[in-house]
Amino acid sequence: RLGVERRVYTSGTSKVQLDPFLPEKEQDLRMRQRLLEDIHSSFKGVVLGERGGKLSLDAERVFSGEVFTGREAVQHGLCDAVGDVRGVMREKFGDKVKFRQFGGPRMFFGTPIGASG
């Protein structure tokens, strides 16, 4: 409609799967479902292995995809506490713990250092 032509270049028979511009292929759907089930199974194993004795919910609900707030997650044994990295690190290692910041521009009065304009 706008004169844009879609082009896809690949090598290999499985490089373009579930392309939203093409009809779905049953083979692609089966493969994606297999991957999802394998990943979900691994996730369940890790959660049950690490949190199993602390969980207050049945496994069906834990792995249903339901979303919990931080407070609810603590209440149900999905996590131990809610906090931020700096607070937890200070609690564990004291107020003298040092933090090193990585990435992002350094700011001077709200402006990135070295910015022009």
Task: Characterize this entry briefly.
The chain has 117 residues and is mainly α. 38% of the residues lie in helices and 3% in strands.
Total beta-strand segments? 2
Secondary-structure class: mainly alpha
| Multimeric organization | single chain
**Low-pLDDT residue spans:** none
Order of strands side by side in the largest beta sheet?
A: 1-2
Distance between the termini: 39 Å
Mean pLDDT: 88
* Helix proportion range: 25-40%
Bulk shape: flat
Beta content: under 5%
Would you write up a description of this structure?
This protein has 117 residues and is mostly helical. It contains 4 helices and 2 strands; from the N terminus they run ααααββ. Strands 1-2 form a two-stranded antiparallel ribbon. The protein starts with 25 loop residues before the first helix and ends in a 5-residue tail after the last strand. The protein is flat. 38% of the residues lie in helices and 3% in strands. The mean pLDDT is 88.
